[in-house]
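Standup notes, structure subgroup. Blocker cleared on the adenosine monophosphate input:
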Amino acid sequence: MIKVVFLGPPGAGKGTQAKIIAEKYGIPLIVLGDILREAVKNQTELGKIAKEYMDKGELVPDEIVTGIIKEALLKVNAKEKGFILDGFPRTLNQAKAFEEMLKELGINLDKVLFLDVPDEELIKRMLARGREDDTEEVIKNRLKVYYEKTAPVITYYEEKGILVKVDGLGDIEEVTKRIEKALGL
Ligand code: AMP
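Run returned:
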C-alpha cells in the first residue's frame, strides 16, 4: 500500500502516469483536475466558481480545493487503501493545509513524486493534447502560475526528505518503469 502525491508542471504526464500506476497496482486515484472538470460539466455551484479560474489557467482558491481533497480521501478510504493524488497540493498554503488534514485523518504521506520535464516539451505536449483550456495563452499562464506557486511546494517536500525526482522525458512505458523503481513498486 502506498500513499503518494504526483507533482510536476502541467503537461509533464502526471495524469497519464498516475492512471497507469493506479490501475496496475489497484491504488485509489484522486485527480483534482478531473473532479473540478466534472463539477464544471454538471454545472454545480462548485463548478460555476471553478470554471472562472480554470478558463484563465488560474488556480481555484485554496479553501475550495482543500475541502474537495479531504472529501475524496475519505471517500476512497485512503487511510486503509492508500492513494495516488494528482494535482494537489499546488501551493505552499495547500501543502500546509494538507499536512494538517493528514494528521487529523491519521494518514502518513510516504512520498512525493516529482515528474521533471523541460518547458519546450511541456508546451508541445499541451498543444498536442488539445484540451479546452489548452490554448497557447492559457498554457503560458498555467506555466507562469506553476513556477510562482507550485515550484515552492517541491522545495517544501525536498526539505522534508520525501521527494523523489523522476525524469519525465521519453516513452510512456519508459517513464512508468522509472516511476515504479522510484516508488519501490
Ligand atoms: P489540471 O487538470 O491538473 O491541469 O488542472 C486544471 C485546472 O484546474 C488548473 O488550471 C486549475 O485551474 C484547477 N486546479 C487543479 N488543481 C488545482 C489545485 N491544486 N489548486 C487550485 N486549482 C487547481
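Discussed briefly. The chain has a mean pLDDT of 96.
Next: hand off to the docking folks.
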